[in-house]
Every structure is written in C-alpha cells, then in structure tokens.
Design goal:
It is globular, with a radius of gyration of 19 Å. The chain has a six-stranded antiparallel beta sheet, with helices on both faces. A two-stranded antiparallel sheet has the order 1-2. The chain is built from nine helices and eight strands. Strand 3 and strand 4 form a beta hairpin. By secondary structure, the chain is of the alpha+beta class.
C-alpha cells in the first residue's frame, strides 16, 4: 500500500462523509491521526487538482467538482441548481439561446448548468474554462475585493492574448472591472465569435455565481443588443430575490 495515496483517499472519504459542511484542517488531521503539515500538503494537492475545495483562505474544505465529474454526477452544487433550474429553463425557452450558470472554483470558471437551444448553430460552453476567457468568469471576479483580486493575479497572472486581448496591464483589468460593476453586466465577444452576456448572482451581498446568455455573434444584432441585456437583468433580479428569500 502506498502511504500517501492511502492518506489522500482517507481525507477524501472523511470530507465526503458530510457534503453539506466544511471540514477544518485541524479536524481532518486530528481525526485521521495525521501530522498537520502532511495533511496540509495533501489537501493543497487535492485543491489544485479540484478534488477538494477550500472555501476561502484559512477556511474549511469540502469536496470539489472533479469528484462529481468522475462519476458524471449532477450533485455538485445541487441545491443551487434545483433553486434556479426553473427560471433558467424559462429564459432558455424564451430566447432559444444557451443559458449558463457558473461559479468560480480554484481560479477556474466552472459550468454548473446549461440550457441547450434548438438552433442549428448553437453554443456549447466548456465545463471548465479560464476565469479570463468567459464573461461568466469576468462578472464574478469583477466583484472580488482588492485583496482577493491581487491574490488571484499572484496565483494565475494577467490574461494572455488568447484569453482577453484588450487587457494588457493590471490597470486595464481594474478599469474594466470597475465598468462591469457600474453597468451590472458584462458583454464579451471572444475570438470564436461567441457573445456572452453575464450578470452576478448575490447571496447576502456576496457574489456566489453568475448567469449568462451565450450565442453566436451572427445572432446578436441591433434588436438583440437592445433586448437581451434587459431580459437577462430581469431574470437575474428574480433569481437574486429567490436566493435571498431562503
């Protein structure tokens, strides 16, 4: 038996024993009789590989989306999906375009839910993408605190030419994020001619996810430029009220 693999699996099994709560480092290490430093190093690797999430710096741990991806499960953030599925499906049917629900985990934009339009030419979002590459990532990190943003930039750097061509410096990034917050919407067209419109979802005044409409730029004409932002904001307001009434 390879000891470090056995310890990693023990940690995963312990965290999986209750998917509704976070486990602290000391609790995990003490329960499994592990050296705290050893446990921290294993958790760091599991977090980097997305098998475990650390909810914030110096906060607890829970299972990451890769655990659910391995078994092709929809249980990851199931409560949020169940709450929002009806308004997302309704918006998708109304527009006949892809509606995207996303979160950020471990500096990646993770797709939680997607409606599929009945279109010959349609958008299919990646399950995991750079936070800089998708409008649904932009809208969330635009609401980071200055410290959260600085810490993220230290970890992953600034966007490259492929991810976000118009952003060259940290000042460019901050300026664009200020605009996103003022507009309360992000509209971004990538190099593949996909337009993404995204808005933030709040819980107790903190952004927890993002809602997006994705469509080919060929279908984003003058009428859509006028109607889609207002429709997205309308649905977002309904969802935010629903989330915060629970």
């Amino acid at each position: 038996m390879i000891q470090v693999i056995n310890r990693a699996l023990n940690i995963l099994e312990y965290i999986a024993s209750d998917s509704n709560r976070e486990f602290g480092l000391s609790e995990i290490a003490d329960t499994l009789e592990l050296n705290h430093g050893t446990c921290a190093n294993i958790l760091k690797t599991l977090v980097q590989r997305n098998y475990v999430e650390q909810m914030a710096a110096k906060k607890g741990y829970k299972l990451g989306y890769m655990v659910y991806k391995l078994c092709d499960s929809d249980l990851y953030n199931e409560d949020l999906i169940n709450i929002l599925k009806e308004p997302l499906d309704k918006l998708g049917e109304e527009l006949n375009e892809a509606i995207i629900l996303s979160v950020i985990r471990n500096d990646k934009r993770i797709l939680l839910y997607e409606t599929i339009p009945n279109q010959e030419l349609r958008v299919h979002a990646e399950k995991e993408a750079s936070v800089y590459k998708a409008s649904t990532g932009h809208i969330i990190i635009a609401h980071y605190s200055p410290k959260e943003l600085n810490d993220m930039i230290k970890r992953i750097g600034l966007p490259n030419e492929d991810e976000w061509p118009c952003i060259k410096t940290k000042e460019d990034l901050i300026c664009h994020f200020n605009k996103i917050r003022n507009d309360n919407i992000e509209i971004f067209c990538n190099k593949n001619h996909i337009v993404g419109l995204s808005t933030p979802l709040f819980k107790n005044n903190k952004v927890i996810a993002s809602l997006g409409i994705y469509l080919p730029d060929a279908r984003y004409g003058a009428a859509e430029k006028k109607t889609l932002p207002s429709l997205l904001k309308r649905t977002t307001a309904i969802i935010n009220e629903k989330i915060n009434s629970l």
